[in-house]
Amino acid sequence: MASSLVTRQMPEFKIDAYDPKIGKYTIVSSDEYKGKWTAICFYPGDFTFV
Q1: Closest to 28 (Cα-Cα) out of 40, 13, 45, 47
Q2: Alpha-carbon gap, residue 29 to 31, rounded angstroms
Q3: Are 14 and 33 within 8 A, CB to CB?
């Protein structure tokens, strides 16, 4: 069972992510969320075999 990381500092990351507002991929990084309360969820793409 996975545990929650509430109140822990987010690890640094930089990743490509699809932005539906502009219709293309952009780079998202942890620097954009410093100093803000944030919930980040990572999951494999749809239709992948786990």
Answers
A1: 13
A2: 5
A3: no
**SS3 assignment for 1-50:** CCCCCCCCCCCCCEEEEEECCCCEEEEEEHHHHCCCCCCCCCCCCCCCCC
Q: Is 28 exposed, middle or buried (0-12, 13-18, 19+ CB in 10 A)?
A: middle
CB atoms within 10 A of CB 45: 6
List average pLDDT for each run of 10 residues in the chain, which is 50 residues long.
69 88 92 84 63
